[in-house]
Amino acid sequence: MKENIKAGFVPFGEVNTPREIIEKKSREALEEIKSLGFNLMAADPVTDDPEGKDIHRAIQQLGSGDLDFLIICITGWIPSHTVISITSKFRHTPMILWGLAGYLENGRLVTTADQAGTTALRKVFEDLGYNFIYLYNIIGKSSPLERIECFALASRTCSILSESKVGMMGYRDMNLYNTLYEGLSLKANLGIEVEFFEMLEMVQRSEKIPQKEIEQIHQKILHEWEFEGQPDDDTLQKGIKYYLAIKKLAADRSFQAISLKDVDGMKKLLGFPPAMIFMLLADEDGMCVIPENDVMGAVTQLIVKNLTGQSAAYLEFYEFFNESVLMGVPDFVPAGVVEGRL
To answer: Where would I find the beta strands (DSSP E) of the chain?
Structure first.
């Protein structure tokens, strides 16, 4: 998963600082970042050289800017304008402002004033509206690699969400208020698009599913699922047809999450509870699924799944106790959250 995270790395140091010190600190920091396993695009050390050659070279080395996040690595004091000349090209990319630290040599502290550089930049970054976190090393302690890794994962998740789509069959099941959403703020803050489709589309597609495809899933279910009673083959095949219809529709429209109109739709109009449709979409295709047109629930599932790489099941509150709660679901859960067979 981490190899899909696209990271940029740019070290900075003042032109008057001995070049060998800047390069050594940059090289050591870069090796630490490489150990995290990112898809890394690294620039050579940048100084405030009067002609700006380092700046132009670094921008070329970083490429088009298609990065999930950018590490601004400060190896010592650096005039702010040098850093901003590069970060302004990536102003919409999440960043880490990372200050390195000095070191002890023969009992003496050697410092290049790394945090003079970071503290001069921190408020500038804030005032420019950058999306960033501020990290710094401390002499004798490990670098904050765990926090860098967490930020990287969050940044990658944001990149994925900005291109994600939720497929919504119907609207506002049971006229619930807490499943409503405001589309523009959702798009502005996360980039997620919600696209609606009609139940009729599912039904029409289901009527064209080849019997061979239906039978393949049918046999797989009978082999892998544990039934408490004798399953009705016609019911299973109807559910499989609906599942395959939605699967094809989701592929055509690039949906990463699906919600169906459950109570007032599938159950009321088609007489078919959609639990097995959800189970198949989740387990066979890795999709996020949630009933009752719960848009924000689907968005939360996408966030959780992309952060953890695990199934994102939904649960409802059933009972409150003094020191615990009882949670459950009325229909289905993905196989990833159960012990044993479904």
So the answer is: 6-12, 39-42, 69-74, 95-99, 103-105, 108-110, 132-136, 165-169, 193-197, 257-260, 288-291, 316-320, 325-328
Domains in the chain, CATH or no CATH each? 2-161 (3.40.50.10940), 165-337 (3.40.275.10)
Strand partners, 9: 42, 71
Rounded CA gap, 88 and 128, in Å? 9
Residue 120 exposed, middle or buried by CB count within 10 Å (0-12, 13-18, 19+): middle
The answer to whether 148 touches 96, Cβ cutoff 8 Å, is yes
R_g of the chain, CA atoms, integer Å: 26
Q: What is the pLDDT of residues 245-282, one digit of tens each?
A: 999 999 999 999 999 999 999 999 999 999 999 999 99
Per-residue pLDDT tens for 98-117? 999 998 889 899 999 999 99
Amino acid code (one letter) for 147: R
Cβ contacts of 167 within 8 Å, gap of 6 or more: 195, 196, 197, 246, 249, 250, 253, 255, 257, 258, 259
